[in-house]
Design brief:
heterodimer; A: about 325 residues; two-stranded antiparallel sheet; B: about 200 residues; alpha+beta; Alpha-Beta Plaits; 5 strands; about 30% helix; elongated
C-alpha cells in the first residue's frame, strides 16, 4: 500500500516537473513564434537564443510586489489562482504519454479518463470567475462574466465533438481510445469533430482569437487585472498548462496518441504531435484578430453546437448501421 | 456575420501569410552589440575643436548662441591673457554650455561658427539619469588636447555623399561596428567608458 502511494507520488512529481518545464519553454517558444511572425527576432538577450528567459521571468515574478485590492474578498482572491492551477495540473494525472512493454507512461490510468478531464476543465471556470468576482473591480468582473458564459457555451460543443470519438472507440479511457486508433487515426472518420474540438479548445483555454476573458484592449487584463507577482504567475502557468492539456488531448483523441511507425519511439511521436498543436495555438494567436463577444456566443451556440450534434448523430447512425 | 466567420479561403490565406513571415529575414538590428553607421553628416552630440597647436578654435564670439533656435547654447567670452593664450584670437570662451535636452540638433551653430569650432558629431548615445547631466559644460564638449586635431566636417571619414538621396541608402545598408568612432572624440569617450566598466 505504502509503495503504491510512493510510486504515485514519484510519478506525479516527475510529470509535474516535466510539464512545468514544458510550460516554461512553451512560453519562450510562443514569444519566439510571435516574434518571427511579426518580423522580430523574439527574446534573445538572456542566455543563448534566449534560453534562460523563462528563468529570468520566474525570478521577476517571484520578486514582484503582491498586491491585494482593499475591497477584495481576501480568501477567495487568494484561493482563485490555486483553483485554476490545481485543475490545470490535475489533468496531467491521467494523460498517458507513451506505452512500452513495461507499461503505460501515466500517473494513473483511469477508465473514465475523458470524463475526469472534462470535469476538471469545468471546475477551472471557477478559478477565473471567482478571481474576477473577488477582485471587486469592474474589469475583472466583466472578464469573469464573459469567461463563464464563454466556457459554458463552448464546453457543450467540445463535449459533443468528443462523444463521436468515444462512440468509435467504445471506451472513455484515454489508453483505450489510443488503442482503438491502431489501424486508423480518428482524425479521418471524425474530421468534423476534430475541427470543432480544435476551435472549442481555443475558447476553452481562453486563447486568442477567443481570449475575450483577458481582452487587453477593452478589459485591461480581464480577470487577472488586479493580480500581480506570483499570483498572476499562477494564472499564467494555468493558462499554459491548459494549452498543453488540450494539445495532449487532441493528440490522444484524434491523432493516435503515441502511435506511429516503429523505429521512432512512441514518446517522440506523442511530443511531436502535441508540439504541433501547441504551434497551431501560437499560429492562431499571431494570425486571427479577437472576435466580438456577441459573435463569439453566436458562433458557439448557432454553429458549433448544431454541427457537433449533427456530427454525433451521423456517427451514431453509421455505427448503428455498420457496426464498429 | 456569415461573411466574416465562414470565409475559409481568407482564413487560410492569413495563416499562410503569418507562416511565411517566420522564414523572412528580420530587419531587426541587434543594437547594443551591433551598431548602425550613421550618415557622415548625422547631427549628434556637439564637440568643440582645437587647432593643430592645441589652441581652442572657439573665439567666444557668441554667434552660435545667437543662431541657436532653441536657446540651448550659453557662451560667455573673456579676453585672452598674454601669458595664457587659450585661442589665437583676442577672446576665448570662458564658459561654454550646451543644454542637450533643449538642443534640436539642427546644426545652425555649426553653420554660424566662423572658426569651425563647434561641430556636431555622429555620437547619439547620450542617455543619463539626471537632467543636470544633460547640460554639457565646456570641459565635456572640448576635445582633449592629446586627442590631436579634429578634421572639419567635410573631411570626415566617409566624406560627404555626392547627393543626399544616397544618405538614406547608406544608413540602411552600411554597417560599421564602430559607428561613433567616426570622430576621435567618440573613440576617446568609448575608451573612457571601457575604463569605467573594467
Amino acid at each position: 500500500m505504502i509503495s503504491w502511494w510512493l510510486i504515485a507520488l514519484i510519478k506525479s512529481a516527475v510529470v509535474l516537473f516535466v510539464v512545468i518545464t514544458c510550460f516554461a519553454y512553451a512560453m519562450l517558444f510562443e514569444r519566439k513564434i510571435l516574434g518571427w511572425m511579426q518580423l522580430r527576432p523574439g527574446p534573445n538577450r538572456v542566455g543563448p537564443w534566449g534560453m534562460l528567459q523563462p528563468a529570468a521571468d520566474a525570478v521577476k515574478m517571484l520578486f514582484k510586489e503582491d498586491l491585494t485590492p482593499r475591497t477584495a474578498d481576501p480568501l477567495i482572491y487568494r484561493l482563485a489562482p490555486f483553483i485554476s492551477l490545481i485543475t490545470a495540473m490535475g489533468a496531467f494525472a491521467i494523460i498517458p504519454f507513451n506505452e512500452t512493454s513495461a507499461g503505460i507512461w501515466s500517473v494513473g490510468n483511469v477508465n473514465a479518463g475523458i470524463l475526469y478531464i472534462f470535469a476538471l476543465t469545468s471546475i477551472s471556470v471557477y478559478g477565473i470567475s471567482l478571481a474576477g468576482w473577488a477582485s471587486s473591480s469592474k474589469y475583472p468582473l466583466l472578464g469573469s462574466v464573459r469567461s463563464t458564459a464563454q466556457m459554458v457555451s463552448y464546453e457543450l460543443a467540445m463535449t459533443m465533438s468528443v462523444v463521436g470519438v468515444l462512440i468509435l472507440a467504445g471506451s472513455t479511457s484515454l489508453v483505450g481510445i489510443v488503442h482503438a486508433q491502431a489501424t486508423l487515426w480518428f482524425i479521418v472518420p471524425q474530421f468534423v469533430g476534430f475541427v470543432i474540438y480544435l476551435t472549442t479548445a481555443v475558447a476553452e483555454t481562453n486563447r486568442a482569437p477567443f481570449d475575450l476573458v483577458e481582452a487587453e484592449t477593452e478589459l485591461v487584463g480581464g480577470f487577472h487585472t488586479e493580480y500581480s507577482g506570483l499570483r498572476f504567475g499562477l494564472f499564467f502557468i494555468a493558462e499554459y498548462l491548459n494549452m498543453i492539456t488540450v494539445s495532449c488531448l487532441a493528440t490522444l483523441l484524434f491523432l493516435g496518441g503515441w502511435g506511429g511507425p516503429a523505429p521512432i519511439p512512441g514518446i517522440v511521436w506523442f511530443l511531436v504531435k502535441a508540439g504541433f498543436f501547441l504551434f497551431v495555438y501560437m499560429w492562431l494567436r499571431a494570425t486571427l484578430p479577437r472576435l466580438r463577444y456577441d459573435r463569439l456566443m453566436a458562433f458557439g451556440w448557432k454553429f458549433l453546437l448544431p454541427v457537433a450534434t449533427l456530427n454525433l448523430i451521423v456517427t451514431s447512425a453509421v455505427i448503428a448501421v455498420r457496426g464498429i | 456575420m456569415r461573411k466574416n466567420l465562414f470565409n475559409i479561403p481568407a482564413f487560410l490565406e492569413g495563416f499562410a501569410t503569418t507562416l511565411s513571415f517566420v522564414f523572412r529575414k528580420k530587419p531587426t538590428k541587434q543594437y547594443p552589440t551591433l551598431k548602425k553607421q550613421h550618415a557622415p553628416r548625422f547631427h549628434g552630440l556637439h564637440e568643440l575643436r582645437r587647432y593643430g597647436d592645441g589652441k581652442e578654435r572657439c573665439i567666444g564670439c557668441e554667434l552660435c548662441q545667437i543662431a541657436c533656435p532653441a536657446n540651448a547654447i550659453t557662451v560667455i567670452g573673456a579676453e585672452n591673457r598674454p601669458d595664457d593664450r587659450r585661442s589665437p584670437g583676442e577672446r576665448y570662451a570662458a564658459r561654454y554650455e550646451i543644454d542637450e535636452l533643449r538642443c534640436i540638433f539642427c546644426g545652425l551653430c555649426e553653420e554660424a561658427c566662423p572658426t569651425d569650432a563647434i561641430v556636431l558629431t555622429p555620437r547619439f548615445e547620450m542617455a543619463d539619469y539626471r537632467r543636470g547631466s544633460f547640460i554639457y559644460p565646456k570641459d565635456r564638449l572640448l576635445v582633449p588636447p592629446e586627442a590631436g586635431v579634429g578634421s572639419p566636417p567635410d573631411e570626415r571619414p566617409g566624406g560627404i555623399p555626392p547627393d543626399l538621396g544616397s544618405v538614406a541608402q547608406m544608413k540602411s545598408t552600411v554597417e560599421i561596428q564602430t559607428g561613433y568612432d567616426a570622430t576621435w572624440r567618440g573613440s576617446i569617450l568609448k575608451t573612457q567608458r571601457k575604463g569605467l566598466a573594467g
